[in-house]
Amino acid sequence: MSSNALESFLNENLNELRDKGLYNEIDIVESANGPVIKINGNQLINLSSNNYLGLATDERLKEVALQAIKEYGVGAGAVRTINGTLDLHIKLEEKLAEFKGTEAAIAYQSGFNCNMAAISAVMDKNDAILSDELNHASIIDGCRLSKAKIIRFNHSDMDDLRKKAKEAKESGLYNKIMVITDGVFSMDGDIANLPGIIDIAEEFDLITYVDDAHGSGVTGKGAGTVKHFGLADKVDFQIGTLSKAIGVVGGYVAGKQNLIDWLKVRSRPFLFSTALTPADVVAATRAVELLMESTELNDRLWENGNYLKKGLKELGFNIGESETPITPCIIGDEKKTQLFSKRLIEEGVYAKSIVFPTVPQGTGRVRNMPTAAHTKEMLDKAIAVYEKVGKEMGILV
Ligand code: PMP
Hints:
This protein has helices at 4-19, 59-72, 80-84, 87-100, 111-122, 137-146, 158-171, 194-204, 225-228, 257-266, 268-272, 278-293, 296-315, 334-346, 376-392, and strands at 36-39, 42-46, 104-108, 128-132, 149-153, 177-182, 207-211, 237-241, 251-255, 327-332, 349-350, 352-354, 364-368. The longest helix is centred in the last third of the chain and has 20 residues, at 296-315. It is globular, with a radius of gyration of 22 Å. It starts with a helix and ends in a 5-residue tail after the last helix. It has 2 domains: 20-49 and 295-392, Alpha-Beta Complex (Aspartate Aminotransferase, domain 1), CATH 3.90.1150; 58-293, 3-Layer(aba) Sandwich (Aspartate Aminotransferase, domain 2). By secondary structure, it is of the alpha/beta class. Helix 4 (87-100) packs parallel to helix 12, helix 5 (111-122) packs parallel to helix 6 (137-146) and helix 13 runs parallel beside helix 15. A 7-stranded mixed sheet has the order 3-9-8-7-6-4-5, sandwiched between helices. The site of 4'-deoxy-4'-aminopyridoxal-5'-phosphate (PMP) has 14 residues, from helix 5.
């Protein structure tokens, strides 16, 4: 028998969400996560995945993953510190360090886990963290877990950051101060002002932490946002995920050897959660190798991104100020945005709406993430559907 208190908590809150239309019904994908996906039996052009380079279904990655399963099995068997560290994990970490231009790297089971692990292993209640107001939820939760004082600065506002860094430093209240930012902000596709952040960090002796989940494989010809700005030796924590452009699953920190040594003895998801599987690890390693060998997929990603942006802009849509292939189509009103996305999906384009509280009120948008795997024909079809639905709903005149 379940608790009465739990039952009433769940019923009240679920009913409220459903009444307000805020309960997110999850679509079930009945195919591989490629440029075209099957949902409810319908083939849809997929503009909603983070599989930026199309590597999630790449034959070369599937091949090495199958081989690893045959040789090593399907599970790592233990946490990394007991006997879950396979030679395959070390190879991945060496490759990630090379990729990011750092002394060392450490892999985690997800990008989310990585932020929970890394921030709280270094920061504590005697410290402060300056955090961009639009940072990802996993950064916010990682900061909270550390118990450090969290000081939010206005999005990419260097004057606000400098003012708050100065105040924090001069207060004398904190042992260590960190500044933390996404490398690429996934809702608008804008790139963090890393040169500005590094200047301020140098002025006030801040620890620097960049989560480049949406930048790795995308910006800097694939090498990521830190390398894009040539700042690999200036950023203390370079965070990445293996689940987006890399196409697999997992997360990592790249940095100096002593930082990685510390994370190996103090970061809790590393110490207390089972290691990534052999198939994940070899597929991710191969993906990083492919990125380092050639910019072909990265070039195609940008070409497709620019093509889609141009097409939507020419139709008259507001596509914001994205600096990456992420292409928001800003509708504004929340209900209208949701209806717009629903109609796109009915017409064969899987592009999801993103509304308040994920983005500010009145800036509801349908977010498009073209990938290297889309063909021009797919993008043309998507643009034609946007035109049809835009006219039908009076968004385009
Ligand atoms: N950091 C950022 C900035 C992200 O956008 C995301 C994913 N949405 C994550 C971390 C989490 O990564 P993962 O999906 O690998 O857990």
